[in-house]
């Protein structure tokens, strides 16, 4: 059973002044549209906070709310309400896109929980690939080998030579790294479950594992991309 974390703050409705939960887009008392809530995406879409999401429920709630806040419905409303319908629509779209995608969702929830995600690596993937300190320890040898193969392949290409042994080697390496990537995704799923059903201590452990898995995933994805590019060149 999932735990419900409700950190939503009650606020007073601008129209009727009755207090309501900040995560709602409409006042439950007078039904007027409310300014975009500060609540997290899970609360906005009426989902329990967790890494495993009921995608059907997500879809349903997103469409239901999107219809309700649609700017066409507020064409004749006052300026504030029109602005809020636009802002609520944008918020719903962001929330939906983030929670629907397993990786975006994982990163989002980890951040919500205060975990530090390895963003220092983002943007310097290209440069970082030759930095041996970033290579996951268990892959050091294979990555070293792969980089040599890639270098040879690029040289062979530049001189117009076709080396099918080298090429086959790279195709195999690509398969190998792709299967490691798939293994990371399986491990992530295991951690999702552990977090969703775990107590506070289990959750902390699980968050750490997920941050490490995301790092590893990013690294492997870049390797696969490099091999694909070199093979396709
Ligand atoms: Zn109201």
Q: Which structural traits does this protein have?
A:
about 230 residues, mainly alpha, Helix Hairpins, about 60% helix, disordered N terminus, binds zinc ion
Describe this structure in words.
The chain is mostly helical and about 230 residues long. The chain has 2 domains: about 90 residues, Helix Hairpins; about 110 residues, no CATH class. Helices cover about 60% and strands about 5% of the residues. It is built from 8 helices and 2 strands; from the N terminus they run ββαααααααα. Strands 1-2 form a two-stranded antiparallel ribbon. A hairpin with a 6-residue loop joins β1 and β2. α2 runs antiparallel to α3, α3 packs across α4 and α6 packs antiparallel against α7. It starts with 9 loop residues before the first strand and ends with a helix. The N terminus is likely disordered. Zinc ion binds next to loops.
What's this, in brief?
With 233 residues, the chain is an all-alpha fold. The chain is 61% helix and 3% strand.
Question: How would a textbook summarize the main sheet?
Answer: 2 strands, antiparallel
Count of β-strands: 2
Radius of gyration, CA atoms, in whole angstroms:
24 Å
- The secondary-structure class comes to mainly alpha
- One letter per element, helices H and strands E, the order comes to EEHHHHHHHH
β content, as a range? under 5%
**The number of domains:** 2
How far the N terminus sits from the C terminus, by CA atoms, comes to 51 Å
Q: What value does the average pLDDT take?
A: 88
Strand order in the largest sheet:
1-2
Unreliable runs, pLDDT <50, ≥5 residues?
A: 1-7, 121-130
Number of helices: 8
Helical proportion, percent range: 55-70%
User: What ligands can be seen in this structure?
Assistant: zinc ion
The coarse overall form would be elongated
